[in-house]
Amino acid sequence: MKAVGLFAGIGGFELGLHKAGIAALHLCEILPAARAVLRSRFPDADISDDVRSLPGIPGEADLLCAGFPCQDLSQAGRTRGLSGDQSALVLEVFRLLRGHRCRLPWVILENVPFMLQLHGGLAMRSIMDEFESLGYRWAYRVVDSYGFGVPQRRERVYFVASMDGNPEDVLLADDTPVPRPPTAIGERAHGFYWTEGFTGLGWAPDAVPTLKNGSTIGIPSPPAILMPDGRLIKPDIRDAERLQGFEPVNGIPWTIAAEEVARSSARWSLVGSAVTVPVAEWVGRRLETPGRFSAEGGTFPLTGRLPKAAWFDGRIRRAAYVGVDPLGVRTPPLADFLDYPGDPLSLKAATGFLERTRRAKLRFNPGFIQAVERYIASLGGLVPSVTTSYELPLVTTSM
Ligand SMILES: C[S@@+](CC[C@H](N)C(=O)[O-])C[C@H]1O[C@@H](n2cnc3c(N)ncnc32)[C@H](O)[C@@H]1O
Predict the structure, then answer these.
(1) Which pTM does this prediction carry?
(2) What is the CATH number of the domain that holds 63?
(3) Poorest-confidence range of 2-16, 71-85, 167-181, 252-266?
(4) Would you say residue 359 lies in a domain?
């Protein structure tokens, strides 16, 4: 199979597909820093910049993949849905599919799972309508990168459409739940967003919370990690790449070429936007060798929140009862996974975070606030005087 990657970013989809034996023919990406990475990593692919000026899909392509912009579909974003100018770019996929001289066999899309809730799942329903009007069958599923061997909690919705194959046998056939570790401060590492602390935290035991795309002008937004020994660190960008499944090539980090055209901090945004490589690899392998989904599940309502997995058999849209871990790969402890020491969280950042938590209505895990206080004291800082008596024994909100 040969693939065309739209909104290719740093090529998470395409690297995963490549590992499954599917070559990238053409990559389209508007950001110069991301294109520099693509040029360095996919020297055999054609590369173009703006999907809106792409005249068509190359005739040899079997597959189109598109992790289209999520700014209008994410909880943290503008929530305008497909009427927002960024996420509406998915409509370019349909323009290209309609204009293609033969019927393209496979399409894969990826985006944030919040789109299943936003406006009653309107954007996802429009995507289903478009594919059905073009004669495709489809399946979609929310999948967490954590169950693919990387200690990152990252739920994303994957959507596969096919002209002739059975998308449900690609996306829904595998289901092997893996347990999520409980909080154990002092024993495991715990990821959270130090820039938050007031309305949310992104708390992730033995994992980092979803890496974010930060800002387009390259202000990095790495999470913090409370290490088992009490240090608070920000992970190294090279480990962030690995947390997305981008291993270094001959010792050279995947996104280093971005620094030819952008500030080094831009790499955080590129990595945070990417598709996790082993997830794309799993989809690619299942395209080549489909599994067998034993269909169970009823139809779902026409309005309201959509199920976490569903498929269309050519006649009826059905909910599917599968979890977020298709393969159930065992994930190593976060502290063991990290190859680099990371940067200590600064005293200013730690104190600012602690002050936000003092004003927050969140409930924190036992021992967490004391651990932050101890860290501040270890840096010689003054711990703000409010006591920790409000600290209640419960889980914090997650991303
Ligand atoms: C969610 S990211 C996709 C990341 C990619 N799947 C990866 O693994 O790195 C969406 C990408 O769409 C790109 N993009 C936005 N507008 C575009 C356009 N008009 N043409 C091409 N790419 C565009 C963004 O620069 C961004 O890299």
Answers:
(1) 0.93
(2) 3.40.50.150
(3) 71-85
(4) no
